[in-house]
UniProtKB/TrEMBL annotation:
This is histidine kinase. Residues 155-186 form a coiled coil. Keywords: Coiled coil, Kinase, Phosphoprotein, Transferase. It catalyses: ATP + protein L-histidine = ADP + protein N-phospho-L-histidine. It comes from the Bacteria. Residues 566-782 form the Histidine kinase domain. Its EC number is 2.7.13.3. Pfam families: HATPase_c, HisKA, PAS_7. It is an enzyme of class 2 (transferase). Gene3D superfamilies: 1.10.287.130, Histidine kinase-like ATPase, C-terminal domain, PAS domain. It comes from Sphingobium olei. The keyword Ubl conjugation does not apply.
Length: 782
């Protein structure tokens, strides 16, 4: 083995060192690249997971039409696999609606040509799923030049949410409009302030109260309803309501319509929305309170002057008022009543003075009288005292829970009544067996004499009649016999007229058992009044039968009108469906139609349009007969409306060979009304003329006017009409008879007349057999 030279050894060492260093560097670089590759792979995996969980499915379209897409696109399109080419995606069976597929194809081509972005909503075939497609040119490195990247989003849920939000917005808008209408219709001033206390909204009542032109003027000028009261301005009161976060209520003066009024003003804080307020006029209430105090004082003065004893107790059953006759009648001491004793204590004092009826169980009797405070109706009793005094006691519960007692000394009246009872019984026997019901009332309204027929008719007990009751008491006792108890007032008034006014009166009254009587009250020479009653039940029953029959006929007419209206509305739904499908077929949604099929579809559309117009006419005619047609009020150019109607009728006129002429003078001008309704009236007149005129006839439309009214004339040289036909044209009964007999019962002329009358105008018909027909519509300018 040859030994290396020193130089060769050095060279070899250097080479080995360089080789070792390169190996170390290569190993280090490999480790670094491996780490970077691992990081890149992890990042790639994370991006892949992120892309898979993204709400959008990416689609890459290469220039040659190849398509790369996420697997979920197949599920969205209802396919088992993702389309491999864009032609499969936009094909008829690609999973998209045909129109949407065609639109997507055009947008992709536009991106490839012009490089612009697009956004398009498409739907799957036979699916409710909505897909949002956003397209743009593919960036370099993702696809070659001419490539397109699509992001497809499933927007079904978001679209449903958007629709739900739209519906909520519509509901809130309707609620806001309803609230605004309520505020505007409020009869008292209402307003709203912004958080900086400036007026932002006022209603019409506010505008009227401050004598402003409109709400805008009030808001612009900051016109306040009330003045500064007690050093507090309206803005300061609103600020205080905001500070306390509670409604503020105050009474302030205000000048309304030139008068000083007392207003109750309320400010209601609404949080960040500002402050609402309203004002209620309390002037009448304050005046009513003053008037109530005056009336109460006058009532006390009046009660104090009555000859009857009066005592008033409060809700706590303490004595609040009494008059001098009350003290004298019951022998009470005034100082004993000055301490406002209780009701029971007052009764004890009356008993001590021996001025109460004798009762074995006085505490129980007193407890029953205490219930007068709780009685819903007034109570009346007759007390017989030990000394023979007869008292009429009237107990009236008061609204405040108190009780008003009135004691009337009727001793003398009872004695006189007893003396006259004998005379009355003798006189009663004279006519007790008469067929008519007879009663004699004295000048003071008391029943003096009566026969058995009178007692039987009224069902009055003999003991009541024996007391010779006044007409008021008698009617109060027997008013339950009447079909309408309030008719007892009529009987009282007739007796009062005969006894006091000395006038003869008659009337009629019905009883609860169905009987009907005619009665008369006649003054007698001795100052009394004769009251007679005659049974007319049978004749009234015949009259009622005729009246019921008439009401039944009127009700039947209302039912007919309601039925026609409901049926017209019910016919609209299938008619709209037929028309809609026919229009879709005519537009080619169901495929290309043959020429005969197109003719059939056109016939369906014409027939549905004709039927829709007939339904509208029936609704208009029915509505006008029931409650009047709704008419708008706006300036109407009558010449333009007439020309439009002529254009609509020209095709039918040409088909029948009828000549149409028009002469519209400049003074025809405008009227204030409903252009659509006036056009309907002219259409009906033209249609009526075209229907009855034969080939070669001539129809003329003429228009002129004056300062007060405008006139439109539609005339023809057709067969004309007889007077009977003219009458039948506007008579609903005649039209119904024609319809039942198979005749042509058109509603054009009646509806045209009602349209003209709804505008305050008139429609007149002039026709002679063989001379044609002329119909004139006159409409007022205003």
């Amino acid at each position: 083995m040859t030994a290396l030279s020193p130089f060769a050894a050095v060279i070899l060492g250097v080479v080995l060192a360089l080789w070792l260093g390169g190996a170390v560097w290569a190993l280090a670089s490999g480790q670094r690249m491996r780490r970077e590759g691992t990081q890149a792979q992890g990042k790639f995996d994370r991006l892949a997971v992120l892309l898979a969980s993204a709400p959008a499915a990416p689609v890459i379209i290469h220039p040659d039409g190849r398509l790369e897409a996420a697997d979920r696109l197949a599920k969205w399109l209802g396919k088992t696999r993702v389309p491999a080419f864009v032609s499969e995606l936009v094909a008829e069976d690609g999973g998209l609606e045909p129109d949407d597929a065609a639109a997507l194809s055009r947008e992709i081509a536009a991106v490839q040509r012009a490089g612009r972005s697009f956004a398009l909503a498409v739907r799957g075939t036979g699916s409710t799923r909505l897909l949002l497609v956003r397209g743009a040119p593919a960036p370099p490195g993702l696809a070659e030049s001419g490539g397109v990247v699509l992001w497809i989003f499933d927007a079904t849920d978001s679209q449903s949410e958007i629709q739900s939000l739209k519906e909520q917005v519509e509901q809130l808008r309707d609620a806001l409009e309803a609230l605004a209408g309520l505020l505007e219709a409020a009869p008292f001033p209402m307003w709203h302030r912004t958080p900086d206390l400036r007026l932002s909204l006022v209603n019409s009542a506010y505008v009227r109260a401050v004598d402003a032109e409109n709400a805008a003027e009030v808001i612009a000028n900051g016109i306040e309803l009330v003045e500064v009261a007690g050093g507090v301005s309206p803005q300061a009161a609103a600020a205080e309501a905001v500070a306390q976060d509670a409604p503020m209520d105050r009474m302030v003066p205000a000048t309304i319509d030139g008068e000083r009024r007392t207003m109750r003003v309320v400010d209601v804080p609404l949080g960040p929305a500002g402050i609402a307020g309203y004002a209620v006029d309390q002037h009448e209430l304050e005046q009513a309170r003053v008037e109530h105090r005056r009336l109460e004082a006058a009532q006390r003065d009046l009660l104090d002057r009555l000859s009857a004893g009066v005592a008033r107790f409060g809700a706590d059953r303490t004595l609040r008022f009494w008059n001098q006759p009350f003290i004298s009648l019951f022998g009470l001491r005034q100082e004993a009543l000055a301490d406002a004793p209780l009701f029971e204590r007052v009764l004890d004092q009356m008993r001590d003075a021996r001025r109460l009826p004798e009762h074995r169980d006085f505490p129980a009797w007193r407890g029953e009288r205490r219930n007068w405070f709780l009685s819903p109706e007034p109570q009346e009793e007759n007390w017989l005292l030990q000394d023979g005094t007869h008292l009429r006691v009237y107990a009236q519960p008061l609204p405040d829970g108190g009780l008003l007692l009135i004691f009337e000394d009727r001793t003398e009246q009872v004695q006189l009544s007893s003396a006259r009872d004998t005379l009355l019984r003798v006189r009663t026997a004279t006519f007790d067996n008469l067929f008519e019901s007879i009663g004699v009332f004295s000048a003071d309204g008391r029943l003096q004499m009566w026969n058995s027929r009178f007692r039987a008719v009224w069902g009055a007990p003999e003991d009541l009649l024996a007391t010779h009751p006044r007409i008021d008491d008698l009617m109060r006792a027997v008013q339950a016999q009447l079909a309408k108890p309030q008719q007892s007032n009529l009987v009282r008034e007739l007796v009062r007229a005969a006894t006091v006014e000395r006038k003869q009166r008659t009337g009629r009254v019905g009883f609860a058992d169905g009987r009907i009587f005619e009665f008369a009250a006649m003054p007698l020479p001795d100052g009394n009044a004769l009251f007679t009653m005659l049974d007319v039940t049978d004749s009234r029953r015949v009259e009622q039968i005729l009246r019921d029959r008439n009401e039944a006929l009127e009700q039947a007419d209302k039912v007919k009108t309601a039925f026609v209206t409901n049926m017209s509305y019910e016919l609209r739904t299938p008619l709209t469906t037929i028309s809609g499908f026919a229009e879709m077929m005519s537009a080619g949604y169901a495929g290309e139609l043959s020429e005969p099929a197109k003719g059939y579809v056109d016939g369906i559309l014409q027939s549905t349009a004709r039927l829709s117009m007939l339904i509208d006419n029936v609704l208009d005619l029915t509505q006008s007969e029931v409650s009047g047609l709704p008419i708008e009020r706006a300036p109407v150019d009558l010449a333009a409306v007439a020309r439009d109607s002529l254009e609509r009728a020209r095709e039918q006129a040409s088909a029948k060979g009828i000549e149409m002429a028009v002469t519209l003078q400049d003074d025809l001008g405008r009227v204030k009304g409903d252009a659509r309704r006036i056009g309907q009236a002219i259409d009906h007149l033209l249609e009526n003329a075209l229907r009855y005129c034969g080939r070669g006839a001539r129809i003329l439309v003429h228009g002129d006017g004056t300062e007060e009214k405008a006139r439109l004339i539609v005339s023809d040289n057709g067969p004309g009409m007889t007077p009977a036909q003219q009458k039948a044209a506007f008579d609903p009964v005649e039209r119904a008879d024609q319809a039942r007999s198979g005749g042509r019962a058109g509603i054009g002329l009646p509806l045209a007349r009602q349209l003209a009358e709804a505008h305050g105008g008139t429609l007149t018909l002039l026709s002679e057999p063989g001379q044609g027909t002329m119909v004139t519509i006159e409409l007022p300018r205003g």
